[in-house]
User: What shape does this take?
Amino acid sequence: MTIDLRSDTVTKPSKAMLEAMMQAKVGDDVFREDETVNQLETRIASMFGKPSALFFPSGTMANQTAIKLHTNPGDQIICDKYAHIYNYESGGASFNSGVSCKLIDGHRGMFTAEQVVESINPDAYYYSPTRLVEIENTANRGGGSCWDFAEILKIRKICDEKYLGFHLDGARIWNALVVKNETPKQYGEVFDTISVCLSKGLGCPVGSVLVGDEAIMKNAIRIRKVFGGNMRQAGYLAAAGLYALDNNRGRLNEDHKKAKQIGEQLSKLSIIKTVEAIETNIVIFELDKDVNEKAFIQKLKDKNIHIIGMGTNKLRIVTHLDYTDAMHEKFIKILQMLQF
Assistant: This one.
C-alpha cells in the first residue's frame, strides 16, 4: 500500500468519473462549440453569481490571466508574502504581465484591510501604481487556513474606495466554503475575478475555471490564447469537473477530519516542535532542530508514505479523496510507533 500525502493533486479519476468523461459531448472549443465546456462554464458562473466564466488547463494560467486582465506593465499587486502567485507560479506575474508584488507580512497567509491601506503606493509618478489586491483561500502555506469573510468585505471596501481590482485565488475554495458554511455567491458578490480549481479537493485530472464580471472577462479568452491555453475537444476534461461538482464536494469534511486526526497524532511525537492549526485538509508541522528533515521524509518513504518538505524543518501533509480509511488507519499506526 502506497500512501501519497504530498498534495491533493495526486488523485486519479474514479471509474465513475472516467465514465462521465467518456460520455461527454464535445466539439471544438476554440470555436466555442464544445457543449460540455460551455455547460461547465455556465454552471460555475451561475454558482458564483457571475456573468462570465472560462475553462483553463491550470490554476496558474487562470491566475496569470486574471493578473493580466487587471493590470498594465509597471503596475503593482498587493498580496501576502506566502501567496501562490508570488511563490509558486515561476515569476509569472513579472514575466507575463510586467508587474511587481507588494508583499504583506500577514498571519498564516492572510492579512487585514488595514495592512492593505498601508501597502497602497502614494499617488506620485515615481511610485508603481497599485492596481490589484489578491488573496488566496484557503491559504496553502498558511496550512489550509480560511479567511474571515468579514475581513474580506473590509478589503472590498478599500478596493472600491481606491479603485483597485480584487482577485481571489480559489485553488481550495471548496474546502473553505465547507468549513465556513459559506456559499459561492457570497464570494462572487465581493471579487471581480475568481479562479476556481477542480483538480485539488474535487479530484479532477485537469482544470480550473476563471469567473468574473463581464467587462473584465471580455478579453480573457484572448489572454488564454496568448498563454497557449486554448484547447479543442476539452469537454472530456470539463465532464470531470461537472461530475466532481455533483459528487465530490459533499465529502470534503472527511479530508478535514483525517487531517485533524493526523495533526493530533503528530503533536504527541517528541520530535515534533509544533503543529500549526488545522482547519481544512493541510497539515503543516515543524521538526525539532536536531531532527533532519530529509531523514524524516526518507523514514516515511521507506514505509511507502510520501510527504513533502517545505524547508527550514517544516513539512506538509495533504489529505484527499484517494486517501482511504484503510490508508489513514495504517498511517496513524505508523505514526504511533515511529521512532527516530
Notes: Residues 252-266 form the longest helix (15 residues).
